[in-house]
Amino acid sequence: GGKDRRSGLILTIPLCLEQTSMDELSVTLDYLLSIPSEKCKARGFTVIVDGRKSQWNVVKTVVLMLQNVVPAEVSLVCVVKPDEFWDKKVTHFCFWKEKDRLGFEVILVSANKLTRYIEPCQLTEDFGGTLTYDHMDWLNKRLVFEKFTKESTSLLDELALINNGSDKGTQQEKERSIDLNFLPSVDPETVLQTGHELLSELQQRRFNGSDGGVSWSPMDDELLAQPQVMKLLDSLREQYTRYQEVCRQRSKRTQLEEIQQKVMQVVNWLEGPGSEQLRTQWGIGDSIRASQALQQKHEEIESQHSEWFAVYVELNQQIAALLNAGDEEDLVELKALQQQLSDVCYRQASQLEFRQNLLQAALEFHSVAQDLSQQLDGLLGMLCVDVAPADGASIQQTLKLLEEKLKSVDLGLQGLREKGQSLLDQISNQASWAYGKDVTIENKENVDHIQGVMEDMQLRKQRCEDMVDVRRLKMLQMVQLFKCEEDAAQAVEWLSELLDALLKTHIRLGDDVQETKVLLEKHRKFVDVAQSTYDYGRQLLQATVVLCQSLRCTSRSSGDTLPRLNRVWKQFTITSEERVHRLEAAVAFHSSAEKILQECPDQPEAFTEMEQFDEIEAVGKSLLDRLTVPVVYPDGSEQYFGSPSDMASAAEHIREKMKLVSLKKQQLRQPEATTPES
């Protein structure tokens, strides 16, 4: 690292006691002389051969070798000799003799006198100088530099090859070069880091002082190394930046190709096996169980599609990320891939949804059909059972239940029609998803099945309606029959009540003619009411007979109702006639008695015949006797009018009037008795 007074570089060759290999020394010198620049070499070298620990023959050989290695560059050779060891004359004469032939001056000098030719600051401590030099440190730095230079040069060549291969040629050649996956033999980041560390070390030694505070002048090789390192680093950074861009483009292209490959996998599966699965699934089933089996099969198909749809979502996100990156050259291709993928996936998803909705509609249709079938079976079973109600209320309840079931069937059939029409509408739209496949046969089978189910249900419902109409008429007739029987029984009760009222309340015979006639008129109206009740009962019983004949059944109550009606009516008729006889007798009695009692006593000629009084008395007695006689019915039973006290009260009025008549008779007889005496 030192320099002589001509600014030439100083080359120090230390020799040792061991045998020195001239070949190795020659190679070392060649290497060392290759380090300085041509400008430095032009200033010449001062070579210091340290022979203090070597023999003269070795020193001489080394000096002669310099003639072959660096004859033009060497200006001075200083051989440091040992003290009093060599023959001065021989050595001096020898080098002087060879001066012209060698081409450089050779001097023998002691170590302490070396400063005559070279400044102390340019000599190391081994020669009494002050130049700081650490050979191992220099060697390590040199090795680092050599390694960096070798690696960086090789790396530059490789990066240039990669980068140029990406820039040149057609697109096909570019893709072929990218497909080689050619990578640098060393890590560019590591080489760059090594270069930066080396450059930092060289620059630090240039500007920092030595330990003694004396400014240290770097060796020319280090000064030369700095621009070399900087140039290599600049080239590396440039090539590495281009390489990173190439890698980015390669990664992007690789990613784009992977995306394109995955997109085609998704598209090919969806348009191939996926679509084929849907093409083979066109049936809707003929029952709930069949529709459920088809739904389960469809769920398996959906499960397989879900895996590919998940890939679609992932690919769509990757494509969106690449689109956001904004590389214009790939935007068109990416958008085309995205559009193709979306179109296929949405079309397939729409088919799956359509198929699912179709199967759900079919399941609902079959469910409604099954419910309606069960309702029709229940209604038919109810109609097939013979009606044997206990009374009209139970018939009404049964009829109400029958109407409710029929209404429920009607609503069920309406719901079936709505579900069937909706299903038919969906089937009519099925052809648009067939990818050109003719699904007329499959659709016709489905349409025929749906229409067949609806027609069958309509026929069954119509048969049930006809049977319901017949059953309704029969049940209404039975209701009417029970009503007639009940009303006939009620008529018997009413007639019995009239008879009872006639016997218990129709007792009075009146106090005079007028009152008795009023009672007689009321009795006739009372009889008319009873007659209407009897006629109404007879009509009801006749209607019962007609209804029984129509229903082909025997009434359980009309058989004894008619005899009861006739018996009560016969009793009422007998009792009524007796009542009429008593009232008519009372009218005759009151009429005769009142006529006699109202006659003036001054007219005795009116009573010439006493037989009238006898007749009145006879009528009165007959009436009193009749009041004590019970009414005898055809069955031998007897009934009295009212209670004994009531009858006694009615008889009392007759007796009082008979007393008045008897008193009147006596009054009329007294004048007749007094006339002869006078």
Automatic annotation (TrEMBL):
Task: Note the superkingdom of the native organism.
Answer: Eukaryota
- Spell out the molecular function terms from Gene Ontology: phosphatidylinositol-3,4-bisphosphate binding; phosphatidylinositol-3,5-bisphosphate binding; phosphatidylinositol-3-phosphate binding; phosphatidylinositol-4,5-bisphosphate binding; phosphatidylinositol-4-phosphate binding; phosphatidylinositol-5-phosphate binding
Domain CRAL-TRIO positions: 1-135
Q: Name the Pfam families for this protein.
A: CRAL_TRIO_2, Spectrin_SESTD1
Identify the keywords attached in UniProt to this record, alphabetized.
Answer: Repeat
State the InterPro entries in the record: CRAL-TRIO_dom, Spectrin_SESTD1
Protein family according to the UniProt entry: Belongs to the SOLO family.
What this protein is called in its record is: SESD1 protein
User: What is the organism of origin for this protein?
Assistant: Ardeotis kori
Q: Which gene encodes it?
A: Sestd1
